[in-house]
Amino acid sequence: TVGVQSFQVHPTTGVLRQRFKSETCLHAKVETDAVTEVFEKNADAIDTFCRGTNEFWKGLIIQPVKDYVAMPPKPRTYDPKKPQDIFDKLIAPPELPGIPRPVWFTILGSVPTALGWYGYYKFSVEEELFQYELQSGKSVTGCGGYGTLFPFVFAIILGVPLSFLHVPGGELILQAAGAWILLGQVNLYRRVNELCTETSAKELGLSGPPLYSWWALLPPPLDVVVGLRQVHFLSEYWRIQRGEPYDKDTIAEELFPFISSERFTLKTFFRTPSMWFWFTSDWKDFDFEILQESE
């Protein structure tokens, strides 16, 4: 596809956003159609599996934990300028509509806890999407917080000592844990794409889905690129659904502009340094033939 780079001021936020459009985006269409076809053809089976998985793992969790993460009857409003509200939001249970957790906020919780809080983030966003699908009458396409996070946690708790003691099956359990959480990320990106193209594309300043779900399978740091983009767009989706005012995320919109840009290919990312960091915003594109999109 032939990529076209442009800049546009978002009518709602007033933010100068970098856009990357293409004439055909054939590989993007194949990805979207293939994934959608799988879920549409197996909707009932996937729905049953996801509900059952969530319920099974929820049954293994002690009641105090379930009570703590139980959804409140109505969402709470958090002021991002009040430290107490920021802390309360970090430890808040999942809500519906989901809690907007922008990139700066997610980093604030994840870095000081050595990614420990990110596990809670993962649980919360998965449970919010699970409950959203349930309450909206849609087919359930994710296993929720219980069914997504706890199989991974239990497998790590069991697999690490078995592997350390060289007990047969220990390594297999760890590999299964990694595959489970990785496939969950792929599915999460697919679901975020669906949300962002349902009713909020215009409000989000998007002309199409923002993520390539298969990027979750890429090695670091490229998997982090799509992960940060998922955090940003899911947060913005929930903000719009809750009717909350726009609050600029400097990290996603200025310091690392690739986070809030329209969807782009790997070649576009590598040849366009202006989208990498704030200090490369004036750099010209690299004119290497290998980085040009094939027609």
Would you mind describing this structure in some detail?
55% of the residues lie in helices and 5% in strands. It contains twelve helices and two strands, in the order ββαααααααααααα. Mean pLDDT is 89; it is low at 1-30. The termini are close together. The chain has a two-stranded antiparallel ribbon with strand order 1-2. It has helices spanning 26-41, 43-58, 63-68, 83-90, 103-110, 116-135, 144-164, 170-198, 201-204, 222-242, 250-255, 266-271, and strands at 3-9, 16-22. The protein has 295 residues and is mainly α. The chain is globular, with a radius of gyration of 20 Å.
The beta-strand count equals 2
As a whole number of angstroms, the C-alpha radius of gyration is 20 Å
Strand arrangement across the biggest beta sheet: 1-2
Report, as a whole number of angstroms, the end-to-end distance. Answer: 5 Å
- Structural class by helix and strand composition: mainly alpha
- Which range best describes the helical content: under 10%, 10-25%, 25-40%, 40-55%, 55-70% or over 70%? 40-55%
Order of helices and strands: EEHHHHHHHHHHHH
Poorly predicted runs? 1-30
Shape: globular
User: If you average the pLDDT, what whole number results?
Assistant: 89
Major sheet description: 2 strands, antiparallel
Strand content: under 5%
> How many alpha or pi helices?
12
